[in-house]
Structure formats: C-alpha cells, structure tokens
Write a structure and sequence with these properties.
This protein is an alpha+beta fold. Helix content is about 30%, strand content about 25%. The structure holds adenosine-5'-diphosphate (ADP) and magnesium ion.
C-alpha cells in the first residue's frame, strides 16, 4: 500500500456517492460554493504521537500551535481566509490537565491571531498515544480560489521561502538535539495565511498548494491535476541555512506555498509581492507540456530520482 494509492482507491470507491454540491477529493481543501460569489472550504489533518511528534521533544503549547497551523496552511494554499475550526483530541490519562491547558493556550493564541473561531470537536481517552485531529473551515470569493489543476504551460513556478529547514530540524530532533534553531522551526511552522489570500486575489496566479511533503512530491500533484510537466532549476531553489538541497526538495512539513503564475505577469507579481511582504518570491522553474518532472542545473538537464515524503 502507498499513501496516494490508498487515497486513490478511496476516491474510486466513493466516486458514485452524491456530491451534494461539494468539490473533492483531491485538493488541499474541499470546496462548497454557497452563493454565486463565495465558497466555504474544508480541510482536516491529523497529528499522531510517535509519527508527527515526540512528546518529550515538543512543548504542549507548540503542539497546539502546530496542530492548527498545518490546517490553516491548507486553507491559505487555496487563497482562502480561515474562519473556524473543529478540534478532536485523544489523550492518555497521563497527559495531565496542565499539559492539556498548555496545548489549548497554543491553539487559542494562533486562533486569536488569525481571527478563527473554535466551533466544536470531540474529546476521548486513548490507551497510550496522543492523537490530534483538526478540521479547518475557510471562506473565499469564488474567483479567488486557487486549485492544483490550473497550471498552464510556460507558467513560472514560485515558492515563498527558503526550504529544507523543517526536515533539517526534524533530523536534529531525532538525533536528540531538540534546542537548535532548525528544531524550533520544525516545531513552529509559520502558515502563510496573508500571503495565500493575497495570491488568491491575483488573477495571474494559476495553481497553488502548500508544501507538506516536499516539492519533489507536491509539484507532481500540481502536474497531475493540471496534466502538465515541469522543469525545476536546481540552482534557483532557495535552501534554508543549515539544510541541504535534497532536504529543500524532498523534506516535508514546510507549510510554505508553491504556486504557478503566468509567465508574462510573473516579474510584476514578484515585485508587488516583495513590496507588500518585504520578502521575495523565488522562481524555481517552469510548467511544460507533457507529464515529466525534469531537473536542470545551470541550464543542463540532470538525472535525479529524488522523491518527497510519503507515509507508506
Ligand atoms: P494535504 O497534504 O494537502 O493535507 P493530502 O496529501 O493529505 O493533502 O491528501 C490529498 C487529498 O486526499 C486531499 O484532497 C485529502 O482531503 C484527500 N484525503 C486524504 N486522506 C483521505 C481519506 N482517508 N479519505 C478521504 N480523502 C482523503
Ligand atoms: Mg496541502
């Protein structure tokens, strides 16, 4: 079983179910167009102890922030504004009241920062591990929603930040160095809420998603959904200090944005973005005809079999 093979089999099995006006499975969020002007968006992500975090290597407060951040990132990735969440917690008896209160402090602080309501959830006891499931709801103008399927040939591929730091931080944590700046970055992802909405409002932006499994995997989702190929210029990929190029391409849990924009408008878009956010956009490649992902170094094609993260 592969993670995406399993998701595809679910999708196939359930293709005969009535959609009731919803669009999904397949993008960062499911979309429900509730009026001619606006849609609601829905996404859910699970954090599982031992797989997504180690209890001794993260504070409860950080975990509360991260559980929410990874969900808000999927809302931002479609150009939407997060409005509400549902929070489900499965906690073993030894997760103390103090731990739970700290977790909620982190969750509450980030909710407050982005004006997101908590509207429900579920609480259960678990045998051993902590499991956290968050569902986030977003809202967007219909013509601001950015899907994975909208990439066009010749589009410039952009990312919004240097990459690889989260994976490098995870290596630090697994090696027992839990206090490094990169470990801190891994535990405290910074979802690009304002940037996602700003890019959503720009019509020259075509396809967008967030980077949760690494560009090497995530870009393939845009390519498959858009029936396109892509070429990435390795020398243009921004790498976080302390990380490697491989980590920048294959490392997961970045929660930065990956998007494509019309070639003609790309330079102006990058200028406007930099003026607005005081941080650059990084053009890392182009969308092509075909279905292949190619890698280039100083203009010359190179062979790489690097893949992103999958759970199986
Ligand atoms: P993301 O990394 O953006 O959260 P995933 O790679 O986890 O997205 O999932 C890809 C798509 O498959 C999404 O549209 C997601 O909603 C859907 N999906 C994942 N797991 C399941 C599942 N168990 N049942 C139904 N849909 C799923
Ligand atoms: Mg996503």
């Amino acid at each position: 079983m592969t993670e995406f093979g399993f998701i595809n089999s679910i999708k196939t099995l359930c293709a005969d179910l009535h959609k009731n006006g919803f669009e999904g499975i397949g993008d960062d969020c499911a979309v429900f167009e509730f009026s001619e002007r606006e849609s609601l968006l829905f996404t859910t992500d699970l954090l599982c102890e031992g797989v997504h975090f180690l209890r001794h290597a993260t504070s409860a407060r950080e975990l509360g922030g991260k559980a929410l951040a990874v969900n808000l990132s999927d809302i931002a990735a479609m150009g939407a504004r997060p409005v509400a969440t549902l929070l489900s917690l499965s906690l073993p008896a030894e997760a103390t009241e103090e731990w739970a209160a700290e977790f909620m402090e982190g969750y509450h602080a980030l909710s407050k920062r982005y004006g997101v309501a908590l509207i429900g959830g579920d609480t259960t006891r678990s045998q051993r591990d902590i499991v956290i499931s968050v569902t986030a709801i977003g809202r967007a103008a219909n013509d601001h929603i950015k899907r994975r399927s909208e990439a066009e040939t010749r589009d410039v591929i952009f990312t919004t930040a240097p990459l690889g730091g989260s994976d490098a931080g995870l290596r630090d944590i697994l090696d027992g160095r839990i206090d490094t700046p990169l470990a801190d970055l891994h535990r405290n992802p910074c979802p690009e809420i304002e940037k996602g909405q700003w890019l959503g409002a720009r019509h020259e932006v075509h396809a967008m998603m967030d980077i949760s499994d690494g560009i090497a995997s995530d870009l393939r989702h845009i390519m498959t959904a858009s029936h396109k190929g892509a070429v990435i210029d390795l020398d243009r990929v921004p790498v976080t200090e302390g990380a490697t190029l491989k980590q920048a391409l294959c490392g997961g849990e970045e929660y930065r944005l990956l998007f494509t924009a019309s070639f003609e408008a790309a330079e102006q878009l990058a200028r406007d973005f930099e003026r607005r956010f005081r941080t650059p956009l990084y053009p890392i490649g182009r969308i092509t005809e075909g279905a292949q992902l190619k890698w280039r170094e100083h203009g010359t094609e190179v062979e790489l079999d690097w893949k992103g993260f999958t759970h199986y």
